[in-house]
Amino acid sequence: SSELTQDPAVSVALGQTVRITCQGDSLRSYYASWYQQKPGQAPVLVLYGKNNRPSGIPDRFSGSSSGNTASLTITGAQAEDEGEFYCNSRDSSGNHLVFGGGTKLTVL
Amino acid sequence: QVQLQQWGAGLLKPSETLSLTCAVYGGSFSGYYWTWIRQPPGKGLEWIGEIYDSGSTNYNPSHHYNPSLKSRVTISVDTSKNQFSLKLSSVTAADTGVFYCARRPVVVTAIRPLDYFDYWGQGTLVTVSS
Question: Which residues does chain B have with pLDDT short of 70?
């Protein structure tokens, strides 16, 4: 089992706001990064650090953190936002990296 | 533009050694963690391990490995070719999946480390079957 816990699936109506969460004790000390993966493709970095978006990632993607939970929020979800989202951070030792189990996002 | 291009054998028999290589084009090779990540069919991502090469001849590259795979994993680097490699020994069917190489910048902030994988390879499907 992963040290980072994600809900297996989340759905959102087109144009609405959705929050995807990642829980783990290590998140009290380390930032999470977030990746979107579409079927048959490599993951793509969408968010990292406190709230940093790589070039080319729409500003509807934002991040936050509180206690042991990191969140990825999509404000005004679009059809192309469907996919699997993974969080990543360090494990409780701080020496290794670990992924959450992933959240499948469906845009209705 | 940074590109990671990976290759290696896609079909192995149980007990054989998986061997993959990732070439880095564009950007600097030194000063980054070069990482391997895998994904079993229909499942999530798993960090395998990484290697850091400072570019200094005074220091050997440093490694970090997933504790659950550490006894079977070796990650090495060839700075002359801007390549890094993964070897996973004694494979079983449970090692079947897509393997990705990725780059992790070294960013130390005043508050806490900043870890993320900004560039990924295209992925290599490795199947272990007798």
Answer: 55-60, 110
Mutate to test the interface with B, among A57, A96, A103 (most CBs of B within 10 A): A96
CA triple A87-A93-A94, angle to 5 deg: 55
CA distance A98 to B68: 12
Is pLDDT at A1 greater than 60 in this prediction?
no
Does A49 have pLDDT greater than 90? yes
Contact A33, A63 (CB under 8 A): no
CB contact under 8 A, B44 and A101: yes
Q: Do B123 and A42 touch (CB under 8 A)?
A: yes
Structure tokens at A21: 């969460």
Tell me if chain A has a CB within 8 Å of the CB of B115: yes
Q: Is B113 on the interface with A (CB under 8 A)?
A: yes
Cα–Cα distance, A56 to A59 (Å, whole number): 9
Tell me, what's the pLDDT at B27? 86
Mean pLDDT of chain A: 96
Write the DSSP assignment of chain A as a string of letters.
--SSB--SEEEE-TTS-EEEEEE-GGGGTS--EEEEE-TTS--EEEEBTTTB--TT--TTEEEEEETTEEEEEESS--GGG-EEEEEEEE-TTSSSEEE---EEEEE-
Contacts of A101 in chain B (CB under 8 A): 44
Q: Contacts of residue A89 in chain B, CB cutoff 8 Å? A: 115
What number of C-beta contacts closer than 8 Å exist between A and B? 67
